[in-house]
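Hi everyone,

Forwarding the result from last night's run.
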Amino acid sequence: MAVPRLTASMAMPVPRTAALATVSSSLGRRATRLLPVFKGLRICTRLPGVPFATSSRAVCRGAVICEAPEMTTERNAFFLSLISSAYHIIVPDVSKATWKSLVMDSDVPVLVGFWAPWCGPCRMIEPTILKLAKVYEGKLRCYKLNTDENPDITTQYGIRSIPTMMIFKNGEKKDAVIGAVPESTLVISIEKFVVR
């Protein structure tokens, strides 16, 4: 029975401390080979004697395999903070207590993003809403409504999936866009109601 040979392309999950393995070569000699070590989301090949703390990019040549949810959340929060600081604007929350004064009694059209903290697509579209809030500053107000904390308004407007963006003008619902859509889709909807 033939024993499979270890090739450089094989990637096997191993603990960080077990980076070396003994394998048989075709000549019958035993050789020590460096196995890949998983470091976060990259497969890295460590040189013997080089600790992780001092490993450089040249030593650690790996490709991203997958993205853990916590990494995605951290990365999204980082990029969202960059975007919001670049535009110097935030999308404020609206609630049942502030709904009438901020949305219904507004003198300009209002875009309300219905979202929840656990919703991935909601986090994906938030930078787009931040950008649109800046682009249409003075012509459109943007708010976000947490559907978990405001079930009454969510039910009143028949929200069945999130993210849902609704446009209100003169206290009336005028349009709705459901899902994490491209910016151009939201712009088309907004342009119908914004005064130039």
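The radius of gyration is 26 Å.

Cheers,
N.
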